[in-house]
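Changelog-adjacent note: as of this version, every example in the card shows the full chain rather than a window. The one below runs 81 residues end to end.
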Amino acid sequence: MDYDDSWHLHARCRNNYSHLFFPPSTFERKDDRERREVRARAVCNACSVKQECLDYALSIREPYGIWGGYTEAERRELLTV
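Full-length structure tokens:
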């Protein structure tokens, strides 16, 4: 089955924001992670393809990052419902 990923072209997180959606390769303190996630969610909330992004992440069971405004743990929880 072919998947239409053209929504990527309209994602607000493209380019300058990508650093907000994935943790750094070095240690990240909890309060720093929470601030980063709040900023990432703000980008998601203003995005016209937020639902498509979340649907994609759920369909491929993306294990990392914030997709469609949801963290890894939140997406895992959605999949178990």
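Structural remarks: The chain has three helices and no strands.
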